[in-house]
Amino acid sequence: MPRELLGRVTSTVRALFLAVDPLGVVVAGAATVALGGDPRPVFLAARLIVVAAAAGGWAAGLRAAAAGDPGRRTRGASHPGR
After folding, report:
1. How far apart are CA 58 and CA 77, in angstroms?
2. Higher pLDDT, residue 14 or 74
3. DSSP 8-state assignment for residue 40
4. What is the pTM of this model?
5. I want to staple 64 with a disulfide (CB 3.0 to 4.6 A). Which of 26, 29, 69, 70 is the partner?
């Protein structure tokens, strides 16, 4: 990502997360009520979703690194243009 766009992209992502957060609270509350008021299955489902998303991102990063994708940089890589 070009450095000149980093601030705009970061603020857009932050705004999207803040906008979607209340929706997650409503969905979690509705699911808890639908399951008889016990929040444990909702927390378990949320935990599984987070682990699956993290594993998917990690696997995608490994695939990109194995393919030699020039769009991804690893720690310690040179930074052209600086």
Report:
1. 19
2. 14
3. H
4. 0.60
5. 69
